[in-house]
Structures are given as structure tokens and as C-alpha cells.
Design a protein that fits this description.
Chain lengths: ~375, ~375
Amino acid sequence: MKPHDTRTVQVELGERSYAIHIGGGLLSRPELIVAQLVQKRVAIITNPVVGDLYLGRLRSALAALDVAVVPIVVPDGEAQKSWETLNRIFDELLSHRSERRTTLVALGGGVIGDLTGFAAAVYLRGVPYIQIPTTLLAQVDSSVGGKTAINHARAKNMIGAFYQPRLVLADTDTLGTLPDRELSAGLAEVIKYGLIRDPAFFAWLESNLENVLARKPEAVTYAVARCCELKAQIVGADERESGERALLNLGHTFGHAIEAGAELGAWLHGEAVAVGCVLASRLSQQMGLLGEADVERVVALFRRARLPTQPPAFGAARYLELMGVDKKIEHGRLRLVLLQSIGSAFLTAEFAQASLERVLEGREDAHASHG
Amino acid sequence: MKPHDTRTVQVELGERSYAIHIGGGLLSRPELIVAQLVQKRVAIITNPVVGDLYLGRLRSALAALDVAVVPIVVPDGEAQKSWETLNRIFDELLSHRSERRTTLVALGGGVIGDLTGFAAAVYLRGVPYIQIPTTLLAQVDSSVGGKTAINHARAKNMIGAFYQPRLVLADTDTLGTLPDRELSAGLAEVIKYGLIRDPAFFAWLESNLENVLARKPEAVTYAVARCCELKAQIVGADERESGERALLNLGHTFGHAIEAGAELGAWLHGEAVAVGCVLASRLSQQMGLLGEADVERVVALFRRARLPTQPPAFGAARYLELMGVDKKIEHGRLRLVLLQSIGSAFLTAEFAQASLERVLEGREDAHASHG
């Protein structure tokens, strides 16, 4: 894809506004990065897998524009969203005497983005950072909107900050090296956007899913850009999740419970979100909001995206316990994002406990699809 | 002191504005706290010393207004500004299922305030908090303005956030139990405010220092309130320290070097700041800004406040090394807050290295005053 095919989405947050550029070849356009630097000095945080593929290219491109680069490579995996890894990053920054004007650059997926964003939020009480997401999940979701976090031993993303990047560069060429399973996991968040607030986009996905799965540049760029537009609208209206932004958590309360209850790393985040969206749809159906046919459309699209749609058999009691430490709890009552229809989500604490338990037991469908 | 003697200073920061109440008996006025709660639930973070003195009183006062209280007692001392202690706080909050609407309350000195403020900044990506400072240092400085932090093994306050409290309650009665040495340490910051931007306040201190040392309520409340007014003006104009707020660091670059170079805990922060202010005055004198008589006024006032005025003999090279990891470094050049005159500070990178080294060697005065 040529540079002129780049799409740009603006996140409007007053003095914290920034651009998301989406398209092919962006890693070779360091001038987009340099325009955002306060000083020609960056620390690039990445992992060995992404680093081997893209760090050299990004480094040379930046060096050609006289940008000093400190690379910081941390191991791969969700377990790295920890105090220990964060402290390793601080050690490296301190040993290179990184100052308030040094910009941190996250080159990688959601883990690298969350970790780097939180490091930037708290190092010297805040330094600038740029997101260069290299997975579909990170491009459509975690790199946009400033939610940063690390995990606590007892719950995911418990410790973090709302802290906006200066720029997001989503180079869709990097999706070419993404394993199929991770592409599918990213598609779970893509489908989620359609479910939350864009029935036309949901229908577009029903017509174009195979083109996205085949990584056709036009389809991928459209899908990523549409998700970023939807997220930018939501974040622009509610940066700190006091209202509408909570809708982005569709499927996430269930999903986090699955991730927390299973062995660490057994489920990809997107896989758990896919099941979570299905559970939210089923509970919405129990409440008479969605019809059987709607639920089948939801399940069918996730399946075509090669995603699981059946919850692991933890039992309702264990699910409720796992969901009890969720951040969205208020006044001790569990709140969930449910669906009025495909394309319209809402947040509510009004649902029957029996319906919830029935859905958590997976009683509607006895055929597990996740191995 | 009766409630009607309370002074109130407003910190103007748009939607993050808040009040500082200063006076006697405030711990027995829980309605001031309740007015700021989103939910009648607080976690009070304190240490054993302050907890023994004041936790019971505060807890009963809040309980009488139906506020649920979770007390979290962490050990005393600067070493507690660590990941480990922060994680202990998160563990307690999680085990009590503290939600986004639970307010954290810092009951203690600077360590408790910095730790609690940072915990509030990052727990669930941000929960409300209230400062109840019980030391002079915390009342005039660390509890106001939203600077929160923990230490890194290699440098103080390296990891933190700008995160404003909802309310500051400075009960001057709590200073009655403060050890003399800590009262003096707090006075270092009080004198600093006069040096930075209020020559009349500096002169008031020259006339009234003994009344403050004797903890006369009227003098103490006036001094605390004047410092809070000055800090509120500065923070209101420059919340994130991009300009004027840096002047509050008068004496702190030198002071942090002293704290970092000496054995942990050997110097109180205020003691190091006192020496730092003297060093800044001497360097300003070397540059022809302050006269010998001005420097003598500065030294004399710190001495009357029973504070050290002579730097430990680390040698200039070690000082420069210790100052090299300071947050205020920009483009690799050391910047310092110096004095144009008593009551007028400025930030500069323009000073002769030889003058700095001469001052760091303490060559002006061979008589050490710190044991």
C-alpha cells in the first residue's frame, strides 16, 4: 500500500489531542514521529519477536533524521505487565539518563503498548509517548485512547493511568507477520465495535470478513480506520470512562473472568472477549432484548473469524467470584454492558441473577468450541 | 483553636479545583470530608505513630456520620515509598473490594501523602483521595499541589504522577505532637516560600520565628496558610511544572543530592533543603546577584530555625554525579533555581561550573553545623 492510501483519524481531547495514521509503509516515515518529538531522543520499547522484525527498520529510519535511539527489549507475553518489568524499563531509562523530553515509543502489541504507556505516565511523573501498534488488537483498540496499565497478582489491569499518546502509527504492513490466531483475536475487538454502536459496520464485516482474514490491504485499512474512528468518538466524549466509554467493555467483564480463571496465557485477550460478547448477547436475549436470530448472527460472525464462542466450564459460582473484583463494580453491584440490538450497547445493573448464572453455565449450547 | 479560626485557601485548577482548610480541631469536623465523598466509604492510610495518635479520633468521627472506614497501616519512614509498600496497599484495597468510588485518605506526613496520592493515581486508573497532613512539611508543601511519587532504588521521587486531591485538611493541632526536629525540617520549606516569591513573608518570619517554633496557634496557622496561598498561586498557574512551578524546587537539586549521597534517613528532607537553599544563595552570590548581607540573612534564619546550613563533605565530583540524575535536567544541562534577591527566584542553566564546584566544596565556611 502506498503512503497516499494512509487514513488519518483525529482524537479530539483539547490540548491532549492527537492523530492516528493508518496504512502501509508507515514504519518508513520517521518524519511523522519527528514532528511530535520535543527533543530528538527516543527510547523504543519492544519485545524480541517484534524487535527482530521491525526494530532495525525503525531505528535506521529515525537515525537518518538524527534521532538518538535507546532500544529497550523486554520479554514477550502478558506476564510482562508487571512491576518487575516496569522497573527494568525504569532502570534502563535512568541508566541512559532519559529526561522529561525523551519520548518513549511502544513498538509491539497490547502488552508493549500498555506497559510503555504506563511507564510514560509515571516516569518522572509523566513523559511523552508514541504508540506504534503491530497487532490488529493493538491497532484497533489498546493503542488508542490512553488506557494504560499493568496487572496485579489478583486481577488484570488493576494498576494504571489514563494517559494519552502524542501519536499513533498503525502500519498495517506489520499485520502481514501476525500469526493467524492473533489476527483472529484482534477481530474480536473489531466485531465488538460493530456490536456496540455501528450496525452498518457489523454488516460490512459480515460481507467482508474473508477479505480481512486474507489481509487484503484495502479491507484491513478500512476495518482498522473505522474502529479507530468509533473509538475516537467515544474517547473524545468520555476520556476517563465516567459514562459512554464503559460501553467499550462489552464482553470484557466476562472475558477478564475467563482470562483470570484459566491458566495464564491459555486464552488470548481477544478470544476471551469473543466469548464475553457472546455471553453478553445471550444474557440480552434472556432479557428479551435480542432475538434468537440476532444471537445466531453474533455467534456466526465470531465463528467465521475463527474465534471461540463457548465459555470454559468454571461453573457460575466461580465466574461470579472472578467477576467480583472487576473495576466496573459500583455500590457493590455488578454492572454489565449488554445489547439493545446489534449496534446498540448499554450499561446496566438490572438483570436477573438466575439469567446471568444460566448464561455463565453455558446451558444454551453444549458444544464447546475452544480447545 | 476554635473552628471559626480556620483559614481556607482555594487551589484553582478548573474541574480539579479543591480547598485547603487550615486550623485547629479539623480532625473532629468529618462533615468537611463527607462533603467530598462520592460514596460513604474511605480507606485511611497511615503509619503506626500517627495512627496511634489520630486514627481512632478520625475513625469515630467518620463512623458517626455513617462512613465505612478501612484502615491501612504501613510502617513509618522514607523507605516505605516503594513498590513493595504500594503493592501492600493495593492488596488491602483489593481484599476489601475497594471500588472506583472509594476515597483514599492520607493521614500522616509527606511519605504517607506521597504514597497514598500515587496509590490513588494508579489504583483502577485513578480513585479520589484526600490529604490530612500531620507534619509541618506536609501541611505547607507535599500535601498541596498533587505531586505524588515513590522512590526508585537509584533516585528519589522518580516514579509518580501529578494527581490532585479532592480536599486538604491541615489540622494545626496535630503539630503539637511533632518532634522538634521535624518541626524545624518543615520550617525549611516555610522559609523557602519567602525566598522564592515573598520578601514580606521572609521578613515576617524573621520577626516571628520564635512564635512558630513555640507552636503558638496564631503564628503557626498564619505561616501554614501563607505557604498554602503561595503554593496554590504557583500550582494554579503551572500544574505540571512546565515553568514557574519549578521555582518551588529551590534548594531541592542540592538537597536531593545530599539525601541520596548520605545514609538513607540520616537527613530529613527539610534539613537537606535548608542546606540546598544556602548553597543556592551562595551560588547566587558568586554570580553577583545576592550580597554578602543577604546570604547572611538567609543563613541566620535557617540557623534560628535549628537547621543545618553546611553541606556534607562529599566533594564536588560526587555532588555533580548525584545531581546528574535530577528530573530537572534538560538537553543534558543542569538547571538550578537561584535567587535574584530574597523573595525572587529564577531557573537557569547559566552559571560557571567553577562557581558551582566552589559552592559544593563548602569553601565559604569551614564550620560544619550538621552532626
